[in-house]
Design brief:
Blueprint lengths: L3 H16 L4 H27 L6
Helix pairs in contact: 1-2
Keywords: Cytoplasm
InterPro entries: DUF896
Organism: Maledivibacter halophilus
């Protein structure tokens, strides 16, 4: 799970992107944070799927 600070920053950059636009450094930061978020999300989702047991 990402820290609250990183999630807040992702949300701030998304909002700013829609309203004002982002400079190049902010775009790079946003891309990096999104990639980290997706990586963590996929790891957690895979863990959940690995815990599922099917029964007949």
């Amino acid at each position: 799970m990402l820290s609250k600070d990183k999630l807040d920053r992702i949300n701030y950059l998304a909002k700013k992107s829609k309203t004002e636009g982002l400079n190049d450094l902010e775009k790079q930061e946003q891309k990096k944070l999104r990639e980290e978020y997706l990586r963590k999300f996929r790891q957690n989702f895979k863990k959940q799927l690995d815990c599922i047991k099917f029964e007949n």
